[in-house]
Design a protein that fits this description.
The structure holds two protein chains of two kinds. By secondary structure, chain A is of the alpha+beta class. In chain A, the strands form four sheets. Chain A has a four-stranded antiparallel β-sheet. Chain A has a three-stranded antiparallel β-sheet with strand order 7-8-9. In chain A, strand 8 and strand 9 form a beta hairpin. In chain A, helix 4 runs antiparallel to helix 5 and helix 4 runs antiparallel to helix 9. The two termini of chain A are 15 Å apart. The relative contact order of chain A is 0.16. Chain B is built from nine helices and four strands. In chain B, strand 3 and strand 4 form a beta hairpin. In chain B, helix 2 runs antiparallel to helix 7. Chain B is rod-shaped and about 140 Å long. The model of chain B has no long low-confidence stretch (mean pLDDT 92). The chains are: A alpha+beta, B mainly alpha.
């Protein structure tokens, strides 16, 4: 009877653990990154934990928990990490390219409208070059054009600054994930296999790998103890020696990069995916667009100043420069007196220089230059949206595949609960029968 | 509930968020009557739209120029009519003065009247438009009215006033009148008759010259009117093209929005139903 009592006790203990696992699954059913726990049962004496062994053909030893495993597949997880990296890059790229698109949208930037207003105003003045009201109005248009350039430049600079801040934040998050992975690696080395502790540590590890790969397309290797090592090209980010630090590098030419720092060793990282890759790509785009706007502003200043110099003003003096500035941010109008506008040319009609301006408009291609810049931003944003949509679909598909293995389905857990509760009740009944039998034997004695 | 994991729940929520975004977008399209909310929705259409806006801006300036030219042209025509009237009157006066029965004082009075027509000519030459500029200029402004297209309101003032072809070469209208007045004051009757006959020919030549100038002015004004009509047609085409590129089809968009709303309501209803109960509810 002692055997029956012991068998019942092992069953009670085992099914209690199994019920606990179901409880853990239900409790974490809404926890992101949690993998469903599976309790493996084994006959005592026949499993790996064979502390007792059958000593006679009639002896039974009961049941025990062999291991608590996560329902998880490395292949599916790796696929999800990879697609998460791509999605991270695509998402931030879309965000920043949309921000650039907004700053370069004609409706808000109005550089195209301002340029057209200057040329159309000049055409209008050609019909009446002496009209002071039209001259004042034209100066106003020149001023609006410079304001449009300054505003657009400031908007793009804001985006560039925002990208820099976001890049620093991403690097911080990647560093935090590396530090956490370092701690988890140490804990995994001593966590018993098949234990609930190891399962929790592996969940935490996967969460940090997820956080890291979201920022950077790291090459992840899982060791025999489940410990993580990660590298990007020749740059080691974490290995048995511990976690390295990532750092944002601001180059003298204004470009940004990321490097892994290990003591005096600095290795540049050129990520192809992850948010950091998205930030760096968007940063390059913002800088390119800023440069294009600056070039256009300088071209406007140069063309109009040369044009003004070729004409004469109402006093018969050669025209002075209309614009000054080293870039779009510093572009300002120089002439404030409408009488100083040089619309005539020596010995020709009073609107001869205005006619020359109208004739030069097409070959200068300033308006088409702006249309090109603005449309490029729109096209890049559209392409980024498509890329993001595709990356999102792929990632969701991979997450779905992973979820079909790791996800906690409450219906399934409820069924498990019923099954295990039945087994637990039966085990309790065995203990009770054993107890009653012992009592009866004692009473007979 | 089928496979109701945390991720599946998130997926449904994402679907609903996407549907809400589609509804929001349709609402924006209806409110703004524009199908393109952002340039990236249609970069090619966006570029076309910028170019059309540029054309519209140019058309407005060219339209204003054409109306200014038309107004100057009208001023020019009125002035030329007054010149023609003056020359008609001069012819009448020369014919009347050619009659030898007039006394010297009568001819002097007729000569004075002819000479009084000179300021009429000079006033016409000095006609100014509403902005105070000369309508007849030695260097008329070539005014932009289209891409590489320029028009002037009138011809050069010297061509109109100073280039009447006469037997001796070219003369101004004013000098012809001045000579006619002088001819009337000539005391010798034979010489006077000769000079008056020549004066009558010259005034006739001046009159024909002004008629030719009026005809040329008419052609200019016709070109201005034609260009105004072209611009109006161009504006209509631009408006139509812009509407095609930018404008939302409200009827279609409303139907789309309703279909999105229906899909969202159905998603919400099925989500609420399938996720409201689990097997745990049946365990008691």
């Amino acid at each position: 009877m002692a055997d029956l009592l012991r068998i019942g006790a092992t069953a009670l203990s085992t099914y209690r653990s199994a019920l606990n696992a179901v409880g853990e699954n239900v409790a974490n059913s809404q926890t992101p990154g949690y993998s469903r726990r599976i309790v493996s049962l084994a006959e005592v004496g026949t499993g790996l934990n064979g502390a007792r062994s059958a000593s006679a053909s009639v002896q039974f030893n009961g049941v025990s928990v062999e291991s608590i495993q996560r329902n998880w597949q490395e292949r599916l997880a790796r696929t999800a990490w990879d697609s998460g990296s791509r999605l991270g890059a695509a998402a931030v790229k879309q965000t920043w390219l949309q921000a650039i698109e907004t700053r370069l949208n004609e409706e808000s930037a109005a550089i195209g409208a301002s340029l057209s207003a200057v040329f159309a105003g000049a055409d209008r003045l050609a019909a009446n070059p002496g009209d002071r009201t039209l001259r004042v109005q034209w100066l106003g248009r020149i001023d609006s054009l410079t304001a449009s350039f300054r505003q657009t430049h400031a908007g793009l600079r804001d985006v560039e600054q925002g990208i820099g801040d976001a890049l620093a934040y991403s690097v911080d998050r990647a560093n935090a994930a590396l530090v956490q992975l370092g701690s988890i690696n140490s804990a995994l080395k001593v966590a018993p296999h098949g234990s609930a502790l190891r399962a929790s540590l592996e969940d935490a590890r996967d969460g940090q790998i997820n956080a890291l790969t979201e920022e950077l397309d790291a090459d992840i290797v899982l060791g025999p103890q489940g410990e993580v090592s990660a590298r990007h090209g020749s740059a080691v980010m974490i290995d048995a020696a511990g976690a390295r630090t990532l750092r944002t590098i601001n180059h003298s030419d204004g470009t940004r990069a990321v490097a892994a720092i290990n003591a005096a060793d600095i290795v540049d990282i050129t990520p192809a995916a992850g948010k950091i890759a998205g930030h760096l790509a968007a940063d390059a785009t913002a800088k390119s667009q800023l440069s294009a706007i600056n070039n256009l502003a300088l071209s406007v200043a140069s063309r109009f100043n040369s044009w003004s110099a070729a004409g004469i003003n109402q006093s018969g003096v050669s025209g002075s420069p209309l614009f000054q500035g080293a870039d779009a941010a510093s572009l300002t109008a120089l002439i404030t007196n409408p009488d100083q506008l040089a619309f005539a040319r020596a010995g020709q009609a009073a609107n001869a220089n205005l006619q020359a301006l109208s004739a030069s408009r097409g070959s200068w291609a300033l308006e088409e230059g702006w249309t090109g810049i603005s449309t490029l931003a729109a096209s890049q944003s559209a392409a980024a949206s498509v890329e993001h949509g595709a990356a999102d679909t792929l990632h969701q598909s991979n997450l779905s595949a992973l979820d079909s293995v790791t996800g906690v389905d409450l219906d399934q857990e409820a069924a498990e609960l019923l099954r295990l509760q039945l087994a637990y009740n039966a085990a309790a009944r065995i203990v009770r029968v054993a107890q009653e039998t012992i009592n009866e034997v004692i009473q007979i004695l | 509930m089928i496979n109701g994991t945390f991720f599946r729940g998130q997926q449904v929520v994402r679907h609903m968020q996407r549907q809400a975004a589609q509804i929001d977008r349709a609402q924006q399209q209806i409110a703004t009557t524009k199908k393109r909310i952002r340039p990236s929705d249609d970069p090619v259409g966006y570029a076309q739209s910028i170019r059309i806006s540029r054309r519209e801006s140019d058309n407005n300036a060219w339209g204003a120029n054409l109306h200014a030219l038309a107004a100057d042209g009208a001023h020019a025509e009125t002035a030329m009519i007054s010149i023609s009237s003056a020359l008609q009157r001069a012819r009448e006066l020369i014919v009347r003065g050619s009659n030898d029965t007039h006394s010297t004082s009568d001819r002097a009075a007729i000569a004075t009247e002819i000479e009084s027509l000179i300021p009429v000519i000079e006033d016409a030459r000095a006609t100014r438009n509403s902005t105070g500029d000369l309508v007849f200029s030695p260097l008329p402004l070539a005014v932009p009215v289209g891409n590489d297209q320029q028009l002037s309101a009138t011809m050069q003032s010297t061509i109109i006033f100073d280039t009447v072809s006469i037997a001796a070469g070219q003369a101004s209208i004013s000098s012809i009148l001045r000579d006619a007045g002088a001819a009337l004051r000539t005391a010798d009757s034979a010489a006077r008759r000769t000079l008056l006959a020549m004066g009558l020919d010259q005034v006739g030549a001046a009159d024909r010259h002004v008629v030719a100038m009026r005809s040329a002015q008419g052609i200019i004004e016709q070109r201005i009117d034609e260009r105004i009509e072209q611009l109006a047609a161009s504006k209509l085409i631009d408006t139509e093209e812009k509407s095609r590129i930018d404008g939302a089809d409200i009827g279609e968009t409303v139907i789309q929005q309703q279909s999105y709303q229906l899909a969202q309501q159905a998603t919400q209803a099925t989500f609420a139903r399938s996720w409201s109960r689990t097997l745990f509810d049946l365990l008691g």
